Amino acid sequence: MSERVLICGAGVFGLEASLVLRARGWDVQVIDEGPLPHPLAASTDLSKAVRMDYGDDDRYADAMLECLSRWRGRNATWGDALFHETGVTYLSREPLREGGFEHESFTRLRARGVAAERLDAEPIHRRFSGWREGYHRDGYFNPVGGWVESGRLVEALVAKARHAGVTVTERAAAVSLIERGGRVLGARSADGRSFEASLTVCAMGAWTPSLVPALSESVRATGHPVFLLRPSLDVAQRFAAPAFVTWGSDIARTGWYGFPLHPREGLVKIAHHGAGRVIDPETDARVVTDSQIAAMRAFVRDAMPALADAPLERTRLCTYADTDDGHFVIDRDPTRDGLLVATGDSGHALKFAPMLGEWIADACEGRDNDFTERFRWRTGVASRRGESARSWCEH
Ligand SMILES: Cc1cc2nc3c(=O)[nH]c(=O)nc-3n(C[C@H](O)[C@H](O)[C@H](O)COP(=O)(O)OP(=O)(O)OC[C@H]3O[C@@H](n4cnc5c(N)ncnc54)[C@H](O)[C@@H]3O)c2cc1C
Q1: Pick from 83, 144, 89, 145: nearest CA to 119
Q2: Which residues pair with 141 in a beta bridge?
Q3: pTM here?
Q4: Which of 16, 18, 32 to mutate to test the pocket of ligand 1 (most atoms within 8 A of CB)?
Q5: Which of 101, 135, 143, 336 satisfies CB 3.0 to 4.6 Å to 252 for a cystine?
Q6: Are residues 68 and 142 both part of a single domain?
Q7: Would you say the CB of residue 187 lies under 6 angstroms from ligand 1?
Q8: Are strands 117-120 and 138-142 parallel, antiparallel or unpaired?
Q9: Distances (CA, A) of 195 to 8, 17, 29, 200, 283
Q10: 48: CA distance to ligand 1 center in Å?
């Protein structure tokens, strides 16, 4: 008889784990508060960047090499190409310097045999005409990578999980853990249902500390703005791939990054990978402030003048489950048996979706992998560093 695992949270962490655990013979139940995809979930979005550009972090870069081939495999077998390999550009207003995100990423791409092209001001303007001429002086184009339709990915994962025999229950918010004799035996939902299992995985993104308060020392919810602009038809093509691709503009210093025109929605997404603001995901309003909008407009007016007056179709304040070192937390609760947490995305985990399920299933089964140590349950991390593309400026 197969062991039962309960997964609380059907974002990309929970759903990817459900498929791998099911394939390894577990009896899997997933519960989620929302309709799926949950509108406030971090995974539910038009697009997320898929890059192997990780500065001096070889481990994430190597894992992304593997993930990229799996994304392509999914495009080929899933019947729906959710991953758009437009390539990516990481550009700078200054000459690239050793130790900097762009320089270290470029060097490592080349070392891995990736045909990344170094670009200075003229070719940047000639090839990527959405940028103001001369705005960027240096950078590179990496043909590997691009973006994925993350909301549609969640829809596809829910369907695949159900098809594989995973029980996916919507509108079941886990509000407490069932515990006996120092062991976690499942969770109770807000409407009083009990979901029992020999192992419980808490993968509730930024909401995870609400069910596992001991995590709140090392995982906090931070809000980050997303802006969706609708360019007019006469300029839209300047922001469509290949004339415009997934980009970062001195991302580790400014936080600004974005995407090409969405082929179906006709929208250009711009976002900010910065410090964000600490929020309570349960109660705080998810509002992008006027000053955040003003900061975005000032950047766009200077860097992409053709978009300066594009109507702002909508904004979104999306949440990271933020850790100080920017690494995920995929590990068992050190104080009680029967509970594992899978969270700590820090704003950069979705691109690893094709491997997330294995990392979580390995932790469930006590198997080590290349990331076991890095994703350990940890508290009191010395300094706030974050992953290498992360800027700490606030907008
Ligand atoms: C603005 C922004 C931009 C980003 N850009 C990128 C990017 O370009 N590239 C990239 O790789 N990553 C990016 N990320 C990160 C990526 O979105 C996350 O790493 C990933 O989506 C996290 O998935 P998750 O499953 O942990 O959380 P979520 O997707 O948030 O899922 C958590 C789920 O838990 C459920 N839940 C909550 N409370 C309960 C409860 N009590 N009971 C049951 N279920 C519950 C929710 O309904 C939700 O469905 C970005 C994130 C943000 C916020």
Answers
A1: 89
A2: 89, 117
A3: 0.98
A4: 32
A5: 101
A6: yes
A7: no
A8: antiparallel
A9: 10, 18, 8, 9, 25
A10: 11
* Number of domains the chain is built from: 2
Looking from the CA of residue 349, the nearest atom of ligand 1 is: 19
Q: Are residues 231 and 200 in the same domain?
A: no
For residue 385, pLDDT over 90 is answered with no
Contact present, 185 and 338 (Cβ < 8 Å): yes
Number of the ligand 1 atom closest to the C-alpha atom of 41: 30
What pLDDT, on a 0 to 100 scale, did the predictor assign at position 382?
Answer: 57
Report the residue among 154, 202, 348 best suited for mutation to probe ligand 1: largest number of ligand atoms under 8 A from its CB.
Answer: 348
Average pLDDT over the chain reads: 96
Dist. CA 172–CA 178, nearest whole Å: 15
The DSSP symbol for 282 reads T
Say if residue 283 is in the same domain as residue 335. Answer: no
| Substitution candidate for ligand 1 out of 6, 7, 13, 68 with most atoms within 8 A of CB | 13
- 350 C-beta closer than 6 A to ligand 1: yes
Instruction: Find out whether 169 and 31 touch, Cβ atoms under 8 Å.
Output: yes
**285 lies in which domain range?**
50-148+220-322
